[in-house]
Amino acid sequence: TSIYWYFRKKGELLDAMTDRATKQYHFAAPFVGDETWQDALRSHTRRMRQAFRERPVLVELILMRTSELSAEALQASIQNLESLVQTLIGVGFSPDNALDVYFSLSLHIRGIVVLEHMDTVMPASGEARSVVPNASLAPTLHDLASRGHSIATISDANFDFTVDAIIERAENLLAQDIAAREAS
Predict the structure, then answer these.
(1) 134-156, pLDDT tens digit by residue?
(2) How far apart are CA 128 and CA 168, in angstroms?
(3) Alpha-carbon gap, residue 43 to 49, rounded angstroms
(4) CA–CA dist 52, 91 (Å, integer)
């Protein structure tokens, strides 16, 4: 009951926890370093995913309560986004493409993290995780599952594949942005 000395309602407590988590999360996943921009983005996406995996409560507080951010937490999020977008602009991206590239990666990470979190909160039965499709109904999937591929869980390879695809598209956008500036 002593917690209600500080917070009158459960919502106030959750808001305070969300604000604190937002600040800690942004501190834990900066996009800086001496790497190439591609490697920096790969590292950043992995650090973000790892932060959510190590602290599942962050998924609940940050990703599932985004509309509940206080003005201060929202401002911190906006400043963090500004820094990330400015970093990409500094590499040579147009502002539009810098925002699109970062949002694409961010949406990918958040989607994967929420799916992984849901799998942790409401895990599929062991049978669903290790399903090997019937060979006569799905011969290709049967073969892949028999060789160790999972069709029921997200792997690091799946995550990296999509990150690499987004970065490859970003490389094309950057080349277009540079060519457009040089043509001007």
Answers:
(1) 888 889 988 988 887 777 778 89
(2) 33
(3) 10
(4) 28
